Amino acid sequence: MKTEKHNKKKEQGAETKKRLYESAEQLFIKYNYTDVSVEAITEAAGVTKGTFYVHYDSKDELYISLFADYASRMDAEYKAFFKNLPSDMSASDVLLAVVEKIVDVNICTVGYDRMKTFYTLQLTRVVSTESVNGSDRELYTIIEELLDRGIKRGEFKKSLSSHTLTKQVVMAIRGLTYEWCIRYPDFNFKEEILQYFKLLLDGIRA
Prior knowledge:
By secondary structure, the protein is mainly α.
């Protein structure tokens, strides 16, 4: 009997957390992050404010949880895109295609407001963003795989390791995304990032 009650309580808790998550997601889509309060989330979910803090330490933590799930779905999209590229395509062209895909997803799927909020939370360090920035992300695996392919085929300098190059590529993408956030809307994200990576490729080609 105690086990049944415990399981039922866990199920109810999971359902409540799901309602909070889904309510917050809809509110963040409709309104700016700063305009969405914990009270608005709990009201939409039909729970008390105290219940919110049983499941999340803060609105920031909930937002990062949402963004981490977005990142996971984006990585799945990047992986499918990468796997569908022609096997005989040069590593340089693959890298440019993947980078362009990343920009398209950031602009059209994530959006400026959502990305700006994420970068703000990163800079303030009020919550951990390791779930999005960690090196175990599928996106980083894709980038390292294509760079390693380029080195083995003799397209890129053998003196450079794929691991080192991956770190540089990821930092460049992150830096140019930040540039987009602070200079929006007067920054042509796609044009600037492709120009940057064409210059980078000139430096690493064998």
